[in-house]
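Escalation from tier 1.

The customer reports that the assembly of two entities below gives different structure tokens on two consecutive runs. Tier 1 could not reproduce it. I'm attaching the input and our single run for tier 2 to review.
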Amino acid sequence: MTPLQQVWKQARRLMLATAVLLGAAGAARADMTIEVVGTGATQYPIAIAPFQNEVQQQQPVTPVVGDDLKRSGLFNVIGAGDLSPVPYTVAQFNGAPLKARGAQTALIGTIAPDGDAFLVTATLVDVGSKNTLVTFQRRATAGQMRRVAHQIADVVYQKLTGEPGAFNSRIAYVVKMGKRYELQVADADGYGAQSVLASNQPIMSPKWSPDGGRLAYVSFEEQKPIVYGQDLGTGRRWKIAAFKGSNSAPAWSPNGQQLAVTLTRDGGSQIFIVNADGSGSPRRLTNTGEINTEASFTPDGGSVLFTSDRGGSPQIYRQPVGGGGAERITFQNGYNASGKLSPDGKTLTLITRTERGFQVAVMDMASRQIQALTDTGLDDAPTFASNGRMILYETDIGGRGALAAVSSDGRVKQRLRSTSGDVRQPAWGPLLK
Amino acid sequence: MKKIAASLLLTALLAACASQPGTQPTQPTTPITDKSGNDSASTNPASVDLTKGSTTDAKGYNVLTDPNNILSSRRIYFDYDSYVVKPEFNEMVEAHSKYLNEHKDAKLIVQGNTDNRGTAEYNLALGQKRADAVKKQMNALGVADSQLETVSFGKEKPLESADTEEAWARNRRAELVYDGEAAK
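Tier 1 run:
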């Protein structure tokens, strides 16, 4: 048994004790609930006190912050709502009772009316020294309180772990209900799911533009795969690649102006670079092998990773966009596909074939060691959070497509439970402003 | 240039369609009540609905749909990890090739399909190989490229949803669809 499998086994035992179901009260039918399994190597004990006046909000802030932090597996969230009085400011803060509960830091704050909106102030305090570690302040309307809560969670996460958070982000995925397909967008915690496209034909491979304002995806509405772009604000759609044959596997360049796509118009499946607005002629990138697909850009935009059968089995290659040969980068296992680099470029996530089947894995780019992270065998479409810490992917649970997430160290696992349908093809979007 | 102009026109038509009231969402989605705040506009996505409206009707190619005619046979099955048309399908491929050679205005779309093992996009490329294998055989029988288009559905349109050898075998196939025929 590998160390990761041992961790997972331990984590599953822990699940019975620690599983938390984070329901979103009053949410739409399509919302997902997230079940968490396992914890990080380090857990930060943090007390969260209800913010002053937050109970008067239709969406109180601190429960959302607490759920975000708990779900990451890296925080032990300690309640402080029963303190008398509940501290709202550093001046009112008394560390002793929270220290007794094991808290090292405490999140306190206020929500004050400010014209037609509110001023939200959050302070992270060191329990021992009463020193302010970080202060967050933002003016927000009542309808923006969830967004503000995710931002506060990101600020706390970054201050305590030293890595950026990714709570204030969205995910896109495809839901199949009977013969109906929907492309949906939801907050990263599964809340607020909305359909942005409904079709009677399959939809696949949604990908976020780097600015988070557009999606590229493959739609079969014309009885063949065509790559579309869609503006999420206006709903405007346009064809990015609609050539003879199949058009698939879109991947945005980091500057959002171009995409890599797979076209079969010249024979075989080959990777081309096209303009994001669909203008101009595609520029062909690959010439070797019958299959070259699943392109993704390296974070610097200089190269693409892709899956190719040129060596006889599907493996991942890297090729400069500006010209130059392809370099094979996966050598372990006979099937490696759907490769994407973490934002820091140090870790590759991919689907690898093991004796268990098709599993989400990571490969350390320095050692080239591939390590499977899941215990399922029909995984697909791994997608990094913007901070590279979590990987969201598609799996099969009880014969139904479902989303799950795993930390890139394999220790924390989440299952996103949907009330209906097959949920597939996730894409994790960039951090929202 | 002609292709670009056509695709620009299509884009314009699509854009026009997308703004018509008929394409509004069929079901209420989660309300984001506040639209005046400082969130980016994109956090309140607009919705497009393609499920309304009729699919194209068949134009009535009788000889193609007559169950007693081999031309009504439209499925070619493949072995696991194989992209070769098996001899048992030669008669069907030859009949369709003959039909295409005798009807130069007819166009055939060959749709490749796979079983559900492996990633969706890699399977799309594998399905394409199956469609291309059928096309290659038809080309050898004299069918012009202009009458053929090969596309793939990958693992997106399985005939069977079970995870059994039998279901997988049924899903590894190419489907022949004449231009203008109704979608299945």
